[in-house]
Prior knowledge:
The chain is mainly alpha-helical. The chain folds into two domains: about 1-30 and about 210-388, Glycosyltransferase (Alpha/alpha barrel); about 30-165, Glycosyltransferase (Alpha/alpha barrel). It has helices at about 5-30, 55-70, 75-90, 115-135, 135-155, 175-185, 190, 195-210, 240-255, 260-275, 305-325, 325-340, 375-385, and strands spanning about 40, 50, 55, 105, 110, 170-175, 210-215, 220, 220-225, 235-240, 290, 305, 355, 360-365. The strands form six sheets. It has a three-stranded antiparallel sheet. Helix 1 packs antiparallel against helix 13 and helix 9 (about 240-255) runs parallel beside helix 11 (about 305-325). The protein starts with 6 loop residues before the first helix and ends with a helix. About 45% of the residues are buried.
Amino acid sequence: xxxxxxxxxxxxxxxxxxxxxxxxxxxxxxxxxxxxxxxxxxxxxxxxxxxxxxxxxxxxxxxxxxxxxxxxxxxxxxxxxxxxxxxxxxxxxxxxxxxxxxxxxxxxxxxxxxxxxxxxxxxxxxxxxxxxxxxxxxxxxxxxxxxxxxxxxxxxxxxxxxxxxxxxxxxxxxxxxxxxxxxxxxxxxxxxxxxxxxxxxxxxxxxxxxxxxxxxxxxxxxxxxxxxxxxxxxxxxxxxxxxxxxxxxxxxxxxxxxxxxxxxxxxxxxxxxxxxxxxxxxxxxxxxxxxxxxxxxxxxxxxxxxxxxxxxxxxxxxxxxxxxxxxxxxxxxxxxxxxxxxxxxxxxxxxxxxxxxxxxxxxxxxxxxxxxxxxxxxxxxxxxxxxx
Length: 388
């Protein structure tokens, strides 16, 4: 399937999958009609196999339903479910200081402390999108308060839950600057243009100057406090999916700022990462790599994960649209074929998330502790919108 000549056909394929398979799956199987919120631990047939609720997946699903209501179709069922999930989060999701827990039991009692700032990130994202639907000030206030809390915590976001001994190896982590590239744009209607314009240069600098290592042309997951390379397990770690997802965030910022050079740099980093991370024997993208080719801590390093591949397709679609690069078209074709042939369930519904290196289904679940209603629907929408 050649992207140059069949962009509209591809766009139609992604739109159909989003509207006829993915969203209906979550609408049908995920709502907890007894206690509120969403079940995310769903087996291959959509049946609940665990009732724990993870705040960042609750926030992601509120975001997805609200976003799709605004940008895809004003489906009343999506709005109703977004409100359903938000009410559960508002009632049970935060501690007394406004930090969002990591997980709750089915009834909403806390299970795991708010050690993970990404619960806050996706709560802010969810309530920000919901405000766009409802225009209710309480939804905007939750998003605004949460975002301010993220900014307050961003230098030491694990706080008392940080297991590292202070100052021996004070590494900086890529995840939060990466997410802020996207989250700041998502919340512009709440945080305001002035704050956005203050944040954008900072997050671009972090991603494209601090974590990007020009000597190797790659973005690392962890660097020393001054941005230099740390020759350690953490310092050598490459997460190809994180890098590539971040590059489409950067492309969006490049469009926003009218900076073609920033877009070109993002595309170059994406292609360099793809060329290194593509499994030349079995196909697909590795989950983790060591940039010095040393043994990894992560035993799952060679697994093929859903989010890595669908986010890569978004980045390639945007890169092709923005640059017209033949190389990005060839890569899109390759990743598209692998993704649809291996992750998509031919029996319908949601996609599988975890494959072994050979591309065989490793876990038949459709949702779990980490996989929810987010990466696949967002990516299908982004690719459809980009290529239509």
